Amino acid sequence: MSIAESLQHQTVRETVRAGYAAIAEQNPEPRGSATGCCAGSSCCGPDGADDAEALATAIGYAAADLSGVPEGANMGLSCGNPTALAALRPGEVVVDLGSGGGFDVFIAGRKVGPAGRAIGVDMTPEMLAKARRNSAKYRETSGLDNVEFRLGEIEHLPLPDASVDVIISNCVINLSPDKPQVWREIARVLKPGGRVAVSDIALVKPLPTAVAQMVEALVGCVSGASLISETERLAREAGLADIVLERKDGYVDAMTGWNDPLYARVVSELPAGSKASDFVTSLNVSARKASE
To answer: How far is CA 284 from the centre of its chain?
Structure first.
C-alpha cells in the first residue's frame, strides 16, 4: 500500500470513528433518543428508543431476543439480523465486528450460553465504554459472564489465528477503507469449518458522484459500500467457501419511507424517478472457512 493510500484509509477511519463517537456520547446512559448510523439523525431507522426496537423487529429480531438486551444497547444501527443468520449454538466462540453498544453481542451471549463466549471488537473508545457499562446489566439479568469487548480495528483483529467459531457483523464492513483486509482477517481468525454471518449495506450499481462524496452518507452506511459482486469476490479471495448472498431491498425502501433526513438528502441526489433501493440494498452474507 502506498503512503497516499495509507493516509486516505486513515482519514476514512477517523471520519467514521468521530461519527460513531458522537452517537455514543449523545446517549451515554440507558434510555433516551436513539440516533442512527450518523450523528444527529437516524440513518438506519427512525428516531427514538421505541423506534429502534421497531426497526429491529422489522428486520427479523425476535421479541425474546430484544427483551434480553440491556437498555441503550440497541441504537438502531442494524441493517439485518446476523445472529439469526449465524444459527449460533451453545459452546461456540462468536465475534462481532464493529460491536457498538453491544446489541448483537448480548443476543449472541445468551445463545452460546455459559460454555460459549461472545466477543465484541470496536475501534471507537466511546462505544466500547458504552458496551462495557451495558455488560453489568447483561450479567445481572442473564446470570452469564460470557461477553467481553475489545478495542481494535476490524482490519487488524485482536484475536489469535483459528480461534473463533463464528464471525458476525451488522452494517459495519461497508465502512472499512480496506475491505480486502477485513475479509482476510475474518478468514485468519476463523477455525477450520468456522462460519461467517454478515448483514451489510451493498451497492446494486455505482452511486452517483454527488452521493458517493457525501460524508454523512459514508458514516451512514452508504457511500463506503461495495458492489454485491465485489463483496462475493473479496470473501472468495480471502479463502472462504459456500458463499450465499441474499438481498433485502425492502429494508432500504423502508428507511426512505421513515423520512430520515440523511436518506432524504441521498434520494434528492439520485436520478429523477429513482429510489434508494435501485442503488443500495441490505445484504446478508453467509460463508464458511474450509475444513483442513
So the answer is: 11
Instruction: Return phi, psi of residue 50, to 5°.
Output: -65, -40
The C-alpha cell at 230 is: 465485489
Query: What are the C-alpha distances in Å from 176 to residues 66, 170, 225, 291?
Result: 28, 13, 9, 28
- The three cell numbers locating residue 101: 453498544
Q: What pLDDT digit, counting tens, does each position of 80-101 carry?
A: 788 989 999 999 999 999 998 9
Q: Where are the alpha helices (DSSP H) in 27-166?
A: 49-58, 63-67, 82-86, 103-112, 125-142
Run of H or E residues at 124: none
d(CA 155, CA 153): 5
Q: How far is CA 252 from CA 195, 210, 267, 281, in A?
A: 26, 19, 11, 6
Helix (H) / strand (E) containing 186: helix 179-189
Fold of 3-289: Rossmann fold (3.40.50)
User: What DSSP designation does 47 have?
Assistant: S
Tell me the per-residue pLDDT of 122-155, one tens digit each, with 9 for 90 and over.
998 999 999 999 999 999 999 999 999 999 999 9
> Where in the chain are the domains?
3-289
Verdict on whether the full-model pTM lies above 0.85: no
